[in-house]
Amino acid sequence: MKVSEMEMISPTSVHECLHALTDQQKSSRLIAGGTDAVVRMKDRNWMPDIWINIKGLKELRYIREDASGLHIGPLTTHTDIVKSELLQSKADVLTFAAKEVGATQMQNMGTLGGNLGTASPAGDTIPALYVLDAHIQLSSLHQIRSVPIKDFFIGPGKTVIKPDEMISDIVIRPQEKNEIGIFEKLGPRKAQSISIVNFTASLKIKAQTRQCIGGKLAFGSVAPTIIRAKKCESMLLLDPLDEHMIQNIAKVAWKEVAPISDIRASANYRKDMASALLERGLYRLMKRWENK
Amino acid sequence: MSIKVNNPIGKKHRQETSSDRFQWIGKRVPRIDGPEKVTGELQYMTDRSYPNMVWGKVLRAKYPHARITNIDTTQAKVLPGVICVLTYRDIPGFNGFGIVTPDQPVLCEDVVRCTADAVALVAAETNEIAEEALNLIQVDYEPLEVVADAEYAMTEQAPQLHPDGNIHSHVKINNGDVNQAFEEADYIFENTYYSPRQMHAFIETEGGWGMLEEDGVLTIQCPGQYAYRDRLQISRALGLNPESIHVISSPNGGAFGGKDEITVQIYLALLALHSGGRPVKIHLSREESVQAGMKRHPFKVQVKTAAKKDGTIIANQVRAVADTGAYASLGPAVIALAVEHACGPYKIPHVDIEGFCVYTNNGIAGAFRGFGVNQVCVGIETHLDMTAEKIGMDPIEIRKINAYRQGETSSIGHVVKSSVGTHQTLDKAQNCDLWVNRASYKKQPSEPWKKRGVAVATSFHGVGMGIGTPDYGAASIELLPDGRLKVAVGCEEIGTGNGTVYAQVCAEMLHCDMSDITVVQGDTSETLDGGTVTASRSIYTGSKAIATVAPQMIQLLAETAAEILHTPAKNMEIENSTVIDKKDPSNSLTFIEIYDYLSKAKASTKVNGHFYLPKEKEEIKGSGGAPHHIYGYMTHVVMVEVDTLTGETDVLRVVSIPDCGRVMNLQGLEGQTEGGAIMGIGYTLYEDVAIEEGYHKTKNFADYIFPTIRETPEIETIPVEDPEPTNPFGAKGIGEVVMIPIIPAIMSAIYDATGARVRHLPATPERIFEAMKPMNKSAPISSR
Ligand SMILES: Cc1cc2nc3c(=O)[nH]c(=O)nc-3n(C[C@H](O)[C@H](O)[C@H](O)COP(=O)(O)OP(=O)(O)OC[C@H]3O[C@@H](n4cnc5c(N)ncnc54)[C@H](O)[C@@H]3O)c2cc1C
């Protein structure tokens, strides 16, 4: 198969797109911002007969709130997320994560749906979607279903999306008034880098204190899929989050992750960094809390 | 390439010093090719296209070390759209290339020694068909044992990669008696340092065009660093007269040494002979460039240094082993320069230095900005800091005590007669804000768990070729019909801005406006052979060559005017592109009028000139070419901030203090000091091409990490001008040394911040974190 023999179609509505996905004669793949798709095509990893170009589907690019939560269209770009006042106030952690995807060019082109679709264990927005209890809505011509984020990924690069389905909505819970989040990324450099480890937290804190009354912590790039740090989460509630307490939680963090060694970092370093990013993240988070 | 000078001079003037007597030289002049480059009007050669063009591709070796038992191209040849498939059988001349020792086959015949090796070439109607054809070439291999480590390569057991064995060169410099000195020393420091396989990472990967013209001339347009030598290597492989080959090698989308050797020129030439006169294009993908392109030699350097309590270094022993990969290219010269510079710009009485250039199956290493000095400067600079710390001496003071001055004897035992600016650069360092106020800057880390460090380092770098390699410069100046002057210098524009300096020099010498100068570089039909654009030599060499030929042009103009005006030539003066009779200023002729007269008389309007670079008389025996006559000197002061939780390190500030002789163009100098600093930061903290068992683990820019604008600190340039007497303007070279002392400076600043020494570069967060572990027992850091 040559790249020049590939076809590309550009449906003008979601309905048309779902029709195209239903045709199982030829293999197809969606392309949104293309920041993963084009790279993988160049490496000959993704070589469908037909590319279905959805970048023009404006109806899938939105950020809005209703009684069921915050809705983000899959074609929403990282830049859209960073700039959204609604998300800044009710999903701060997602805006922080989106701001660390690649650099400006990637944020302008790359989409939230694409970050989910690629399903990389290093995908930077995904841990934020964990701590915000995201539900991914999948549509096919005949069915719409909603999958909780924890059930969405089945391994590196693998999701529960069926060949005739696409992501049609991403629903997250709004953060509460006393909830505050943070995203920490360790890459080989500051911009245009793949996470060696990333860490996301969203904590509810009792007003005027450092007492956490509920929090969610997630690590990326330290296991085949995102890891929720449940032990650390339960420790959050024990004592006020002073420096000492933060260090105590950090000491446990490395036990929650199961990283591998690769060209970018050893497994041991990644374990150490799970602890380090948790410590640094919670420290920064509490500092922001105090200044709030 | 020819470029018109548009907007000659910027408004911004620094406090002019010695350069006040010049109109153009020493001024902050914007680049003459700036507008074209910024707007994109100037194309990369590899971005051009021609009607009727064909695409060339190279089949690389499948194994890092294997015997070829058969090559079958039948299937590839019959693929529709394929124009030709070539193997070693199709090479009319000598099947090899290499600047010094041509040990690299153009196309492999019996054995492949690295995955950069080329086995076959294809030309086809489209890039995709060419790619498909590569897959159809059947090469049968018998894999051989891979030599993956340079020190293993030096042992008896290792398979011999070349007939003369795996140690391609071994150079030494010995002075005094190190053993005696080690006995007399108060302190001895002994450490081993490892350096990375840095990639040039130019924005324009290797590529170009080949075309057989109707008149039989073979034109090769291919960005390079020495058109005349490329032409020689092409002609040798093709068995053609060099005169029938026209090489255009400029402009160039970045080179840094990586296009000094032949890249694809010979492939282009071979394919052009078989494409029926159609232009052939080869342009390597980034992945192919990573696999096939030159890299910097990774070194293992063992250093043992002896010091006295008063801070004098009395002995230095260095053993450097360089992995040159499968072929020599400039490896022996790199190692010779490493040995020459391994003891720094100091006067250490007892030295014992040796270097080995060793073959392995790890790709190919060759020329790269710094040329061996980057790898060896680390040992001596670190040991100076260790000594200073031991005896409680200031790091700048200890360097001053040990640095030689002009007229003194260097560590390698020669009396340095040319300009030496080390002491002035150290004075400037001592007085710069960052150094003076370092204690207070260090107290202001951006977050409580971060630590700051400030450090200094100094180094030097030879300008031009050492002993044993011919070194000359040449230029021509031609009067054009419109009264403009065309100055032609062989040295390519590889991104440094040398062409702007050539225009400045020509305008200065001929008393005209810079906008009246056209500069031509890197073209065998337009420029004379004036040597390479390497070895920090193109400003020194080009400016001197133009200054050598300019008087001939003045003479031509004056004598012609005298003839026309019937006045003695000695009365003639040039001003604003006009020749004027001093005695009677109304009596004058414009350059245009002079051109018209000469052209009617069928007389030449072009003058040529050349000169030889000054050399030392005597080579240090066994050194491979040391010493150089001219060196550029350089001091860096840096501040880093280390995140003690993760090991991430930011370089926050750089003070770059070059001694470049006369500053020819301040803006160009800053371009070099800033670019050099960033490349040095990349070398120290980020960059390495990983090769395992001969296979590249680093594939492209996704996993080759170099600094972006977010890793780029504030860089301040404080030039020292110690004029070099052998250049008419006092210029020296600066292109390489600007990235050198920053390497040990960053390493020492990390130590200053954290107490941790990293001796294996790049100092990645993981390596720094590991080195800090023993320090952090009590620190507020999570540990397993
Ligand atoms: C230089 C560079 C740097 C990068 N840095 C980062 C980084 O720091 N962090 C990070 O997380 N990522 C990074 N990426 C990866 C990439 O930019 C992100 O994953 C981005 O969010 C992908 O979005 P996209 O719209 O470009 O996806 P595409 O490439 O268009 O698609 C990606 C995948 O998602 C599928 N897909 C897209 N939309 C849908 C949908 N609606 N329903 C179902 N499937 C869908 C596609 O079929 C495809 O399989 C980087 C990429 C590059 C090239």
Automatic annotation (TrEMBL), chain A:
Pfam families: CO_deh_flav_C, FAD_binding_5. Transmembrane segments: none annotated. Residues 1-177 form the FAD-binding PCMH-type domain. Keywords: FAD, Flavoprotein, Oxidoreductase. One of its GO terms (molecular function) is FAD binding. InterPro entries: CO_DH_flav_C (IPR005107), CO_DH_flav_C_dom_sf (IPR036683), Diverse_Substr_Oxidored (IPR051312), FAD-bd_PCMH (IPR016166), FAD-bd_PCMH-like_sf (IPR036318), FAD-bd_PCMH_sub1 (IPR016167), FAD-bd_PCMH_sub2 (IPR016169), Mopterin_DH_FAD-bd (IPR002346). This is CO/xanthine dehydrogenase FAD-binding subunit.
From TrEMBL, chain B:
GO terms for molecular function: iron ion binding; oxidoreductase activity. Residues 39-145 form the Aldehyde oxidase/xanthine dehydrogenase a/b hammerhead domain. Pfam families: Ald_Xan_dh_C (PF01315), MoCoBD_1 (PF02738), MoCoBD_2 (PF20256). It comes from the Bacteria. InterPro entries: Ald_Oxase/Xan_DH_a/b, Ald_Oxase/Xan_DH_a/b_sf, Ald_Oxase/xanthine_DH-like, AldOxase/xan_DH_MoCoBD1, AldOxase/xan_DH_MoCoBD2, AldOxase/xan_DH_Mopterin-bd_sf. This is Xanthine dehydrogenase D subunit. It comes from Geomicrobium halophilum.
